[in-house]
From TrEMBL:
Pfam families: adh_short. Gene3D superfamilies: NAD(P)-binding Rossmann-like Domain. The keyword Oxidoreductase applies. This is 3-oxoacyl-[acyl-carrier-protein] reductase FabG1. Keywords: Oxidoreductase. Its EC number is 1.1.1.100. InterPro entries: NAD(P)-bd_dom_sf, SDR_fam. GO terms for molecular function: 3-oxoacyl-[acyl-carrier-protein] reductase (NADPH) activity.
Length: 234
């Protein structure tokens, strides 16, 4: 159990998830790092003060409950939840397998619901908290190759908005970051070798946006903000 405020980052990979963990740790939070495997979360937890890695499959209610029970027992009540898990299954309606379609919904929408339900009661009891959801521009439109991704992200966005309308009066700040651009990762760099640095969304900068949302005064809370490089067409 820690005396620090606890931040849970759900979906910790080498890009945004790791950057979010580092950012909240830098601000003095104890950080719980959740991922299906410990490939990234384990070494990251070892490198940060008051950080722990937890195995969690966000599509499975039992796995989510087990992870959050351990966090409450070992670290304390959750002050901030950052939901960064997101399934990037792409293809047209001809290409997408129904199981992949369903899986995208389970990761993006069901997982958010399961994680949020684990923290809302304690946030309410403690007088408030934050739930930050990392979304995508695909939630706003369905282009040809987002037959699975766009509907799942749209469901996630609608769930986040519903949560915000219900929870803001209870002092729980629910907000959504629309990521509009290509996140800077080794695999995206390899795919786009001709692109300059400023073409990409820098994970550390996105993490800074997420943290600053949690610091907003209640009289001027934001629900939806965009994270977009200046070179991105929009």
């Amino acid at each position: 159990m820690t005396a620090k405020k606890v931040c849970v980052v759900v979906g910790v990979g080498p890009g945004n998830g790791a950057a979010l963990g580092r950012r909240f740790a830098k601000e003095g939070y104890a950080v719980a790092l959740l991922a299906r495997t410990s490939d990234t979360s384990g070494p990251l937890a070892a490198s940060l003060a008051d950080a722990r890695a937890y195995s969690c499959d966000v599509t499975d209610a039992t796995s989510v409950a087990s992870a959050f029970d351990a966090i409450a027992r070992e670290m304390g009540p959750v002050h901030t939840l950052v939901y960064n898990a997101g399934s990037g299954v792409f293809g047209t309606v001809d290409d997408i397998d129904p199981s992949a379609f369903e899986g995208a919904f389970r990761v993006n929408a069901l997982g958010l619901l399961l994680a949020a339900k684990q923290v809302i009661a304690s946030m309410r009891d403690k007088g408030g908290g934050n739930i930050v959801v990392v979304g995508a521009t695909s939630s706003r439109r369905g282009v040809a190759r987002t037959a699975a991704f766009a509907p799942a992200k749209a469901a996630q966005k609608s769930l986040a908005e519903s949560m915000a309308r219900h929870l803001w009066p209870q002092r729980i700040h629910v907000c959504l970051i629309i990521v509009d651009g290509v996140v800077d990762l080794p695999r995206t760099r390899a795919m786009m070798k001709d692109k300059p640095d400023d073409f990409f969304v820098a994970p550390d900068d996105l993490a800074d946006t997420a943290f600053r949302l949690t610091e907003q005064p209640r009289s001027a809370w934001s629900f939806e903000v965009e994270a977009r490089p200046f070179k991105e067409s929009w």
